[in-house]
Amino acid sequence: MKDLYGYLFVHFTGEHKDGEQIYFSLSEDGLHWNDLNGGKPVLKSTIGEKGARDPFIIRAVNEKKYWIIATDLRIEAGKGWDVAQHGGSRDILIWESTDLVNWDGPRAATVGVAGSGCVWAPEVIYDKEKEMYMIFFASMTDNKQKIYRTFTKDFSSFTDTELYTESDNHIIDSTIISTKEGYYRYTKDETTKKVKAEFGKDLENSSFKLIVSKALGEMEGVEGPEIFKFNDRDEYCLIVDRYAEGKGYLPMVTNDLSSGEFRVLDESEFDLGENKKRHGGIMTITKDEYDALKKLLVQSN
Fold it and tell me: Which domain holds residue 113?
């Protein structure tokens, strides 16, 4: 896409009052962020479990439209993680917009298979071969966390959900980026509490092979990986949520995804803003989109 200028980060902030709702943050360089709407949620879920975690944003391929999807979950309500995994919502939450500022929603779509205990951290990537959006997420089935997927053209009707990938260990929080050479996938191993990297020529699970990554192998207690390409250079930024330390996201950069190696940024090289950034998604945006969203910053002051 041409004329990319900035970045929009949609995320939640934690298990406190209004923390499990959707917050927006804006950046010109992808490393220094300004919280929008005075640091308050931009979107709130009033349906289902009345919480929205792990939001992810995507722009439509052939029309001026955007969707945000999120986990239907509110841990702050006191249900606990065991119930959340084994007896949680099978829905995803969906918002839709034509300008990034005004949003319709939320509405719920049941995508979890019958008997699954949860639908966590849904993400989307456009499947060029199928000409459909692939929504993938973690679900607990048979006492094991696996990644499932469904396809849609319009975020209103969905194909039957199917198993996408599983491991010997529990896995959650998958994210995928499309590049010229293929697809890179990053997934949290819920057993080792580390993030693993894989590469595939296409989106079918059989295509993906593990990338040995010393940097990721040395990093424990992280989740919610997200990856994006910088607008002005051939460099990528992978961020991981340091949930075990309660520190929020940490960025690391590379100019060669195939190497599996990343340089972890020093605290002096980035500023994530006032709000703690928990699991979310980053979308590159144009100058017009940036300026429209910046009004939310002005209005909040």
Answer: 4-300
